[in-house]
Write a structure and sequence with these properties.
Elements (H helix, E strand, L loop, with lengths): L2 H32 L4 H10 L1 H7 L1 H15 L4 H20 L12 H24 L3 H14 L1 H32 L5 E6 L4 H12 L5 E3 L7 H11 L6 E5 L7 H9 L3 E4 L7 H4 L2 H8 L1 H7 L5 E5 L3 H10 L5 E6 L6 E9 L2 E7 L5 E6 L4 H16 L4 H10 L8 E5 L2 E6 L5 H12 L4 E6 L9 H13 L4 E5 L5 H9 L7 E4 L2 H10 L6 E6 L7
Parallel strand pairs: 1-3, 1-4, 2-3, 4-5, 5-6, 6-7, 11-15, 12-13, 12-15, 13-14
Antiparallel strand pairs: 7-8, 8-9, 10-11
Helix pairs in contact: 1-4, 1-5, 1-6, 1-7, 1-8, 4-5, 4-7, 6-7, 6-8, 8-10, 9-16, 11-14, 18-19, 19-20
Length: 536
């Protein structure tokens, strides 16, 4: 046995396996970040992606087998190691050549700490093996192969090891944000939550309140506790008078946790419906969580919550709480709403309506935004701005200047086509509203969607309903994810939609390429309904 020769090959295999390990760790760490650093969510994701895990670990099994063959047999070692080496390197290249992620891994300090913990755990496991193993090179290669197989659990183990430190760091950040807020007792906080519409309402409210106040709002999708903390620590200034805080939730207690931090005096609940049912389990839990904002507002002197009574779950909960809850101001389309929109007209040019204020005053409003969905969001923003003292005479003009929030029923016009970008929506009511908006346009109507996720036991049912609704509006449908969109396809076909007008793609760019190749006689009007992150 040529020990030097075999050792050289085994060393090359070990280095290649460690390289593949690094790529695997980065991949699973990226998914962990997209899953909100929540171990239980990551475990559910892993359970749903067994096939991908098995495919990626073929290289590790090959390397492991090669190391054992070299140790225990007289097989042609050079050929075995060469094949294993080529296969392992091909997997590393495969990691590099994956489609560019929609939201790349952000190398935060937490990610760096997790990577450091993974490295320490890897070497802590390797050192004892090298100390006691007779065949050190073979054992090292086998260990590196095993580490590739166990990469998802290395990430979770590293997170568990780091969790006491992370909790201390997060607690320090939260306390620092509380200190900043305590130093600004004159700051008025307006919380905005709901199953959908909260980001649009936040943007609209920021624009309307800025007519009178210096306003800070949580940027982009910074709607978790730590996202709000980051916004406060990085952007809060002494001149800010109002803080508009978007409050997201995936679990009961999430909204209450943000409220405990920012102590809102006012709150807007935009809508409630079946969303994130994987974690909430029931609609009742969603309602309870969203009304945590109302509970927090009730503890503030003069606190007021603004409720969209066009959302049936909100109306029902409001009726149940009417005598014991906080002061509430209603908005919506029904006769009993304090701020009521009537005479709604929607076209591809925008929307118009008459707003009746609680005192009976009526004012015509126009907006470039499309759909009743956006009218409801505007009503919530106008109601809050009016109660906070913004002059009514300025509100109508400001509403007319409002622009679409990116990826939320955003109109994008191009040569010969029109895109309705609703990529950030992932709920049944919002999807129906988007299809209603699509129906307003003249042209060849095309739906591009991966369906809806995180709907628990109702996911198949609601996606099938989406397919049925789409069949009544659309001329073509491009479904992203052949397995994931089975229920949407079934709904389309059940409603009589022609199968030859349905295209199944594995990735969004493939679906868009198919849409680009269509040559209908009329202008193409494309609805991008939902765009799932890379962990789906």
């Amino acid at each position: 046995m040529n020990i030097a020769y075999d050792g050289l090959w085994l060393g090359a295999l070990f280095i290649s396996l460690v390289t593949a390990d690094v790529f695997a760790l980065l991949h699973y760490l990226h998914m962990f970040q997209l899953n909100g650093y929540k171990p239980e969510v990551q475990l559910r994701w892993l359970a749903g992606n067994k096939r991908d895990w098995l495919k990626r670990n073929g290289a590790a099994f090959a390397g492991f087998a090669a190391a054992l063959l070299v140790s225990l047999t007289s097989a042609p070692k050079g050929l075995i190691l060469l094949l294993a080496l080529l296969y392992v390197n091909a997997v590393s290249v495969g990691y590099c050549r994956r489609p560019r992620p929609k939201k790349p891994l952000v190398c935060t300090y937490r990610v760096k700490r997790l990577l450091a913990a993974c490295a320490v755990l890897f070497f802590l496991g390797l050192v004892p093996l090298l100390s006691f193993a007779r065949f050190r090179a073979e054992i090292a290669a086998a260990y590196a192969a095993a580490a590739h197989v166990l990469a998802p659990w290395f990430v979770l183990l590293a997170n568990w090891v780091n969790s006491p430190l992370e909790k201390r760091i997060n607690r320090w950040y939260v306390e620092d944000a509380k200190r900043l807020l305590a130093e600004r007792p004159g700051l008025t906080t307006v919380g905005v939550t709901g199953s959908w519409g909260k980001t649009s309402t936040k943007f609209f409210l920021h624009k309307l309140l800025s007519l009178k106040y210096n306003v800070l709002m949580t940027p982009e999708n910074f709607n978790t506790t730590l996202g709000v903390v980051r916004a406060l620590r990085e952007e809060l200034r002494p001149f800010h008078e109002v803080f508009v805080c978007e409050m997201g939730a995936r679990n009961p207690g999430d909204v209450a946790e943000i409220c405990e931090l920012v102590r809102p005096k006012f709150g807007v609940i935009t809508s409630i419906g079946p969303q994130h049912l994987e974690s909430f389990k029931t609609l009742e839990n969603v309602v309870k969580t969203k009304f945590e904002l109302a509970d927090a507002v009730s503890g503030q002197p003069g606190g007021t919550v603004f409720l969209n009574l066009s959302s049936e779950p909100i109306r029902d909960e409001y009726a149940r709480r009417r005598d014991s809850g906080p002061a509430a101001v209603s908005f919506g389309f029904a006769e009993d709403c304090g701020y009521r929109a009537t005479g709604i007209r929607v076209s591809e040019e925008g929307s118009s309506f008459t707003l009746r204020f609680p005192d009976g005053t009526e004012t015509p409003f126009k907006t470039r935004l499309i759909g009743e969905h956006n009218v409801a969001n505007i009503l919530g923003a106008v109601a809050a701005a009016d109660c906070l003292g913004v002059a009514r005479s300025a509100l109508a003009a400001a509403v007319q200047r409002l622009e679409s929030v990116p990826h939320r029923l955003q109109l994008i016009r191009g040569g010969g086509y029109l895109v309705i970008d609703d990529a950030y929506n992932s709920n049944a009511a919002g999807a129906k509203a988007a299809l209603d908006a699509l129906a307003l346009f003249d042209g060849c109507k095309i739906l591009v969607t991966p369906g809806m996720v995180e709907l628990g036991e109702r996911q198949d049912e609601l996606n099938r309903i989406l397919g049925v609704q789409a069949a009544a509006v659309c001329d073509f449908a491009a479904l992203v994810g052949s397995q994931q969109t089975i229920s949407v396809r079934r709904g389309l076909i059940d409603a009589g939609f022609p199968q030859e007008k349905i295209f199944a793609a594995e990735r969004l760019n493939q679906a868009l390429a198919w849409v680009a190749d269509l040559n209908p006689e009329k202008r193409k009007v494309i609805l991008l309904e939902n765009d799932l992150p890379d962990n789906y």
